[in-house]
Design a protein that fits this description.
Gyrase A, domain 2, four-stranded antiparallel β-sheet, 165 residues, globular, three-stranded antiparallel β-sheet
Length: 165
């Protein structure tokens, strides 16, 4: 009996260490609330945005990630040289977005598409559609990366059949 207990105590740490070596996949799309410089480097990230490169700070902890996105829809931006994307959030995340919009009106919502693209939208009113939009700045390569992790709107089928318009 004592021999079995010894073997069991030796096997448990070995089995637990197998799962501990796996890394979580990196987050490629994340949405962050505006923070302040006073929050410190542990809680906020400095980001330069706009043509003048104005300094903003965003929370390190994302409000939403790609796991909260039901599908995305790309479009050509107004500048004609880059793409924009509309992200349709899943039902639970869409409800959370309403709460975020009510509690943080007038702040920015930073949108990061790894590894380099960062943009922001102003939270001006509650959103009933559950859609967050990047208006410009994405490349064809960014869209290929998004296609690997998030369903394209054309691939999402409505219950009645046919693609989502």
């Amino acid at each position: 009996m004592q021999r079995w207990l010894t073997i069991l105590f030796l096997l448990i740490p070995a089995l637990l260490s197998i799962g501990a070596g796996k890394k979580a996949p990196p987050i490629l799309v994340s949405f962050h609330l505006e923070a302040s410089q006073e929050d410190g480097p542990k809680f906020s990230i400095p980001v330069k945005l706009g043509s003048q490169g104005r300094q903003y700070f965003f929370s390190r902890t994302p409000v939403f990630t790609e796991k909260d996105i039901a599908y995305y829809y790309p479009f050509m931006s107004k500048n004609g040289t880059s793409f924009g994307v509309g992200f349709k959030l899943k039902a639970r995340a869409a409800q959370e977005l309403k709460g975020v919009a009510l509690n943080h009106q007038g702040k920015l919502l930073g949108i990061r598409v790894a590894p380099v693209h960062y943009s922001a939208v102003m939270i001006d009113r509650p959103d009933n559609a559950g859609v967050i939009t990047i208006w410009e700045g994405l490349t064809q390569e960014d869209l290929k990366t998004l296609d690997k992790i998030i369903p394209h709107a054309e691939k999402v089928i409505r219950p009645g059949g046919g693609p989502i318009p």
